[in-house]
Amino acid sequence: MSYSETALDLLEKGQLEDFKKQYALALRHDDDDTLYGLAEELYSLGFVNQSKRIYEKLLEKYPDEDELRTHLADILIGEDKTDEALLLLNEIKPDSDAYVQSLMVAADLYQTQELFEVSEQKLIRALELAPEETVIRFALAELYFTMREFAKAIPLYLGIIKDGFLNYSAVNIVERIGVAYANEGKFEQAVGYLEQVHSGEMTPDVKFELGFTYLQLGETKKAITTLSELQDTDPQYTSLYPYLGHAYEEENQNEDALKVLQEGLAVDEFNEKLWLQSAKIALKLNDEELAETYLNHGRELDPEDLEIAIQLSNLLIKQERWQDNIDLVSKYLDQDNLDPQLYWNLAVSYDALENLDQAQKAYESAQPFFMDQPDFLKPAVYFFRKVGQLELAERLLARYLELVPEDDEMVLLQDDFHQLGY
């Protein structure tokens, strides 16, 4: 046996001190081809420093062997010595047999620096030079997957399957295609691939994507089954809870939906959207007190969340808590893009409290946004009539009757306006 073979045998047995001695002997006595093989084996086993030393020794002896440069550059990238790695790679010229490999190593370097476009350029050039190389197609597909450019990744993954690989470099290609299609919104294609992933290879991410895809296709029972299985195996997978809750809601199983969302809040209590979703379900179950509690929790987490504020304001209006609603909405009036629903709610509250000046200002702010909503127009007509804004009231009434021409009460009101000359 060569010293290299003995060293590897000792390493396999866990005899590290004896390995170090044989490794030193290998560096002094083994031929260069044997040492090159030892370097590859040591790198694959995670003994990077020992591998690096051999490559450096060989490069000193064979300065024209660019393949050694690519191996060293790869190691230097792992050591975060990117400048040194680039110097080595830049020494490799386009006519070198190792040029394509150098492009791939450079692409990896730029990807670690999140310079994705530069990495893409390197891999595209490598693929142009070696279009038959699956490893390059895979690297480019994975880069696009990381960049969330799924439409570009899909044909590359399909090409890898055509090359005869369902798994490549410990990655399930079928899974990748399914997830990519799901993220592109092509759910029918996605489910066809995701369902092919064997249960033993079904990671939490893939199971989530499958459950999400079922939900998008309206297959809510399958979504519930899949996402419930994910919850059982990985209850800390917080993304599942909003979708599982929604699936139950679609099945009109609101009590189950609320239970799931409450379980989600137990593991993700700082998710204000989860509090909001739980509040909406509580309202469906007519538990206004619980809904208000959840909405207030959500506002504590994100006071600027207008959707939560609107839901809470709507609840206060329903309960005729006029001053509480005014106090709530007033906290948002200085926002540049205040949701007009809050102006509407504010107008209703001020009107109920006979503060007509403030009610008029709020109605005027809300009115341009709700010209297609009869529920707004009808009370607005009566309000502006009450405060003497008869021309505006008649204009809103005309618009209301375009939308609800069968409302006899409002038809009679329009006749009254006509008699007054409006």
From TrEMBL:
Keywords: Repeat, TPR repeat. SUPFAM superfamilies: TPR-like. It comes from the Bacteria. Pfam families: TPR_19 (PF14559), TPR_6 (PF13174), TPR_8 (PF13181). TPR repeats lie at residues 204-237, 238-271. PANTHER family: LIPOPOLYSACCHARIDE ASSEMBLY PROTEIN B, TPR REPEAT-CONTAINING PROTEIN PA4667. This is TPR repeat-containing protein. It comes from Secundilactobacillus oryzae JCM 18671.
